[in-house]
Design goal:
- The protein has about 220 residues and is an all-alpha fold.
- Helices cover about 70% and strands about 0% of the residues.
- The protein has a single domain (about 35-165, about 175-210), classed as Growth Hormone, Chain: A (Up-down Bundle), CATH 1.20.1250.
- Helix 2 packs antiparallel against helix 6 (about 125-155).
- The protein starts with a helix and ends in a 15-residue tail after the last helix.
- Its main location: secreted.
- Keywords: Cytokine, Glycoprotein, Secreted, Signal.
- It is found in: Secreted.
Amino acid sequence: SPAGDSWGIFTFLCAALCNLPALPALNCSEELGAGQSIQKTYDLTRYLEHQLRTLAVPYLNYLGPPFNEPDFNPPRLARATERVPSATVDLDLWRGLTDNARLAANYRAYSRLLCYLRALDGQAGTAELRHRLGHFCSSLQGLVLSIAGVMSSLGYPLPVGPAGPSVPPGTSVAPNDFLKKMDDFWLLKELQTWLWRSAKDFNRLKKKVPPAVVTLRLEARGF
């Protein structure tokens, strides 16, 4: 009968729909999780760029001349290369790396930069500057954890081995005060370049992640 046929079709549809979420929903939630993690990390890099702009001026003023002069652009010393990870990698070479390699490089660099920033936090001469540095360190720690979350969501392992500097934070290795200030100057400069490039990295990465699929949700009402 027509009523029996309708009931049979309805029963078949209910059974089919109840079985749909088993595998597809898991896949969609993974994609959505990766996309959300990448977007969050991108937003955090842009926020840190803004934070660094507000921090750089008072910190360079704290260092004094010539570090706070707008046209001061010294060559990078070899010792600075050893202490602070450089972002001055050829752009075409950087883009030619795999997503995993770029993420691992970002994770290592920010882990090291965070160690040096925490050392600066303990040496800053004013309470206001220490407060700003402490706030920035907290945000940068969040970025390191966020990058780790992106790598995990994409199935990439975290880099192994020490990510921090070979010299313990707070240990003075500069032979004089000027070179110590030069290290601080390059720390801020490299941070600026890393954040600029990371924002571009995560903006490209979020475009590669497939858009989240809308899943059908059933609400059991009365049956």
